[in-house]
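HOLO CASE FILE
Compound: 1,3-dihydroxyacetonephosphate
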Amino acid sequence: MKRKTIIAANWKMNGNLALVKEMSQQLNALQISDNVEVIVCPSFPYLSSLSDSITHGQLYLGAQNANEHDKGAYTGEVSTDMLKELSVKYVVLGHSERRALYKETSTLVAHKVKTVLEAGLTPILCIGESEIERVSEQTETVLASQLQPVLDELGIEAFEKIIVAYEPVWAIGTGKTASPEMAQATHHFIRAFLAQVNESVAAKVPLLYGGSVNASNSNELFAQADIDGGLIGGASLKVDEFITICSTAKGLN
Ligand code: 13P
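Model generated. Tokens follow.
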């Protein structure tokens, strides 16, 4: 099954206008392998200037969150229509930081996936286990419990338009990357879990790995059979490093 390689930058609550300028200049000038797509997800205030700066045909804009409602009295929130006006194509949903710090449940995340899909945007649905869950061999149960509400609410067909990002919480920002073998085994589980419902949809779902990906480990991770790219935090804030990750990624899956 031929799938694209997707490299997505999650800047989290970092970056500034200078980074927008430098990153977009460097990315616009980049030779990116065919079948590789690069997505940059800055904080909301920078979407507009990044949108104006992007000229590369394989470069897309993503948001880090969206509200589950279309509009209304939700102070501080951002709607999918607003994101669309800024040429956003992707929305990161259910990141472990939002689950842990802002108490987003898998049910809420499923509602957000629905709203984002209805708006014609592509969700990047993040799932992942904590260290204690990994050690106590709960990883598969946790991942299934994060995927199931989306299946229940939207059905397997929704996964034709969803990117799944597997981000083990213990690997985020810690420098502790899952080994390529461990990441591959978990990605294989995720694909097999979806394949129980529909094999052909499961075979097409892009599965990204996230958690301390950098220019030294990215290619080995992305070479695994069920790993279709990465969701990159810290290393996506360093222009040279992110450029290396994008320019050396091969769309070979
Ligand atoms: P790091 O790459 O900094 O570990 O962050 C991963 C992440 O959370 C991306 O969404």
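CASE NOTES: The longest strand covers residues 5-10. Residues 10, 95, 167, 172-173, 210-213, 231-235 surround 1,3-dihydroxyacetonephosphate (CB under 6 Å).
CLOSED: yes
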